[in-house]
């Protein structure tokens, strides 16, 4: 690959990122390791690394603590790791992650009308 992945293109961003992650994997012949189960385990590992950054930090102090640039950068790195594996999983499964997310948001808008849930946490039915 001869293009800088930090330079955006006109391609929709999630589609572009999915393609960049696919190309990164293919260039290293790592696609052979990217079965859904292995990708889910890798994803969970990265979620664990993200959660570890917040371990033992009181919930009401987390936002201010991560306003620190170094901590925010670390959180960003782990969030990016999570997204990379999530994009790769969706790609391997043939899931249109942007379309699926839009569909879920539309469903959430229907299920949680603002005038019915304003200021209250949703409950599991
Ligand atoms: Mg990580």
Automatic annotation (TrEMBL):
<protein>
    <submittedName>
        <fullName>Nucleotide pyrophosphohydrolase</fullName>
    </submittedName>
</protein>
<dbReference type="InterPro" id="IPR052555">
    <property type="entry name" value="dCTP_Pyrophosphatase"/>
</dbReference>
<dbReference type="InterPro" id="IPR025984">
    <property type="entry name" value="DCTPP"/>
</dbReference>
<dbReference type="GO" id="GO:0042262">
    <property type="term" value="P:DNA protection"/>
</dbReference>
<dbReference type="GO" id="GO:0006253">
    <property type="term" value="P:dCTP catabolic process"/>
</dbReference>
<dbReference type="Pfam" id="PF12643">
    <property type="entry name" value="MazG-like"/>
</dbReference>
<dbReference type="GO" id="GO:0005829">
    <property type="term" value="C:cytosol"/>
</dbReference>
<dbReference type="GO" id="GO:0047840">
    <property type="term" value="F:dCTP diphosphatase activity"/>
</dbReference>
